[in-house]
Amino acid sequence: MRRALVLGAGGFLGSHVARRLVRDGWSVSGLVHDAGAPHVASRLDGALEEVELVTGDAADPELLLQLVVGVDAVFPFAGHSGAARSLAEPFEDLVANAGGQLAVLEALRQQNRDARVVFPGSRLQYGRPHFLPVTEDHPQDPISLYGMHKMVGEHYHRLYHDLYGLPTCCLRISIPYGPHQNRRDRAFGVVGNFLAAAASDGEIQVYGNGTQRRDYVFVDDLVDLCVAAATNPTAVGSVFNAGGPAPVSIGAMAEAVVKTVGHGRVVSVPWPALEAFVETGDYVSDLSRAEAALGWKPTVTLEHGLAATWAALAPTLTAAG
Predict the structure, then answer these.
(1) What are phi and psi of 192, to 5 degrees?
(2) In the Cβ-directed half-sphere of 289, how many Cα atoms lie within 13 Å?
(3) Is-contact 174 216, C-beta < 8 A?
(4) Is the dihedral of CA 48, 54, 58, 63 positive or negative?
(5) Has 126 been annotated as catalytic?
(6) What is the pTM of this model?
(7) Among 126, 146, 160, 177, which one carries the catalytic annotation?
(8) What CATH code is assigned to 178-214+246-283+300-319?
(9) Per-10-residue mean pLDDT for the chain, 321 residues long?
């Protein structure tokens, strides 16, 4: 039986990966901040008893030295999200998105150089695109600390691969969405925030004219790529974009949310200062490298992905009152 360590197993992407690995027959250990937290149980629903949960800090070097022993794959998915948030919390973002990655890699260098490692990078590493669609060879010129720290984290992974032979693989993820994206602080991500606003028949606030395009990637598609990155020999030492099947404007996505929920209204509002500073404009991933090397391409349309996300999110919003 293959063994996996998922750091941030109570988070959005980490919980989906943990459940998928359990379903595929892996033995899974999951590191979380609080194994008894209600959101951990709800996100790992169906796999909670199979995942060996450990409470601790994902950047704790001593703990990581113990956890990486004997595992076949590591998914270091603990971290902070949000470009504007990173400017308000710079040092927390540095530790969460760069320092924690170095701690994982150093533990593996000492204890387990054979474990495959999948780094969850970000489209924000590119900054404002010079051309579309964006290939992996596009210059990295981040305009937020989040993008900067993700870029540093990726460089750590690539350095440890080149210097010590660690079998790392790095993903640059566009905008992921899907069930279980809800958080206690209601920082759902843009899709979840729009769904939550529509659920209360409120305003879905779109900054500016809402014409900037994004390629939203449904979490099931993204998990498929994460597993391929952890199992396909071709992935070692490589970097892959991870995006959705087609670009959609922010405004069109908001209107699709209204259609999915059945109420709510889209309004245009001025850009807040921090959000305006970190806005990248249009972004569309070139996914040809992942398809050629790993046979991966996203298949879930925004329509079907929104329906599945809303079906999971609606009961939690109702329960929260």
Answers:
(1) -65, -40
(2) 19
(3) yes
(4) negative
(5) no
(6) 0.96
(7) 146
(8) 3.90.25.10
(9) 97 96 98 89 89 96 98 96 92 95 98 98 98 98 97 98 98 96 65 92 95 97 98 98 97 98 96 94 98 98 97 78 52
